[in-house]
Amino acid sequence: MKYIANPVEVEAFRITSVGEAEKGVALILENGAIEIATPEMTARMQPSEGDYWVIQSDGYVYLNPKDVFERKYHKAS
Asked: What order do you get walking across the sheet with 10-21 strand by strand?
């Protein structure tokens, strides 16, 4: 069987700084927000500067490597 993903619209912010936090990884985003990536979020990848913090319309938040994000998404018009 073949499957096609529906187009997905997300909010995303580039990570500009990565540091340590008590309960995860502290991330500073390009919009100035500070977010904490939980151990569950970092189990599959360790975020680096230039990677993305992604928020789906249903509220699900995840990390995406820069090359993967920029290959998959383009700015909405």
From this structure: 34-37, 24-29, 10-21, 52-56, 61-64
Q: Are 27 and 37 in contact (CB under 8 A)?
A: yes
Taking alpha carbons only, the member of 46, 38, 40 closest to residue 64 is: 46
Question: What local confidence, expressed as pLDDT, does residue 2 receive?
Answer: 75
**Which CATH class name applies to 10-65?**
mainly beta
Residue 11 sits at the vertex; the CA angle it makes with 8 and 17, to the nearest 5 degrees, is 130
Half-sphere exposure of 47 (CA within 13 A, CB side): 32
Q: Can you tell me the mean pLDDT for 7-28?
A: 94
